[in-house]
Amino acid sequence: xxxxxxxxxxxxxxxxxxxxxxxxxxxxxxxxxxxxxxxxxxxxxxxxxxxxxxxxxxxxxxxxxxxxxxxxxxxxxxxxxxxxxxxxxxxxxxxxxxxxxxxxxxxxxxxxxxxxxxxxxxxxxxxxxxxxxxxxxxxxxxxxxxxxxxxxxxxxxxxxxxxxxxxxxxxxxxxxxxxxxxxxxxxxxxxxxxxxxxxxxxxxxxxxxxxxxxxxxxxxxxxxxxxxxxxxxxxxxxxxxxxxxxxxxxxxxxxxxxxx
Length: 260
What we know:
Layout: H1 7-16, E1 21-23, H2 31-44, E2 48-50, H3 58-68, E3 75-85, H4 100-103, H5 107-111, H6 113-123, E4 126-134, E5 145-152, E6 157-165, E7 173-180, E8 183-188, E9 195-199, E10 204-207, H7 216-225, H8 234-252, E11 258-259
Parallel strand pairs: 1-2, 3-6
Antiparallel strand pairs: 3-7, 4-5, 4-11, 5-6, 7-8, 8-9, 9-10
Helix pairs in contact: 1-2, 2-8, 3-6, 6-8
């Protein structure tokens, strides 16, 4: 895909021709540029979608359904670990992800924009974040570790750890645990799990998720053919950028809480 800094020019060219547009995540290198992109597609009135593809994952669809299930009780906490080897090498081979002018920043924006989207999609509206970042690889402007505490409107707490390391045998890996008052849930992996559910009554189930897989590309094409809005659209994706911006502001202030 094109580097993130190129998105505004490319999106403007597509909507200028009156065509629908599918944009990879993140939308832009910072919040201001992301907001401008939303205005661009809204003003043009074209069908638009963003590649927040993990909303189509059977594992994360299953997790969202389980958290919302009547027998789950209140969501209490989520621990979300996301790690990947530094994507300037290996199968990713995207040297531009080591350039803050082209990428915007590091693991939090470029990789865990997915996670910020999923956290609010599953756990509910985030109202505050506290964060720290680090630069172990010494790449200026490209953080390789972000540690984030998010609080939701219902006072659930989410701990997100996003890491870029040098272990090339570990491409993108996600491990997520959620505790509600009456159920414990676990997801390992981005797509098919396995997943685990433990009930307050002693039930314990492990296996593949029973939620169907989505197909974001096919969904976008269908939306265009049927002349209807596509999802997730640019405005939906903007919320993850608002959260990312709050994370970076908190980290820049040494972990000071930031309301969102």
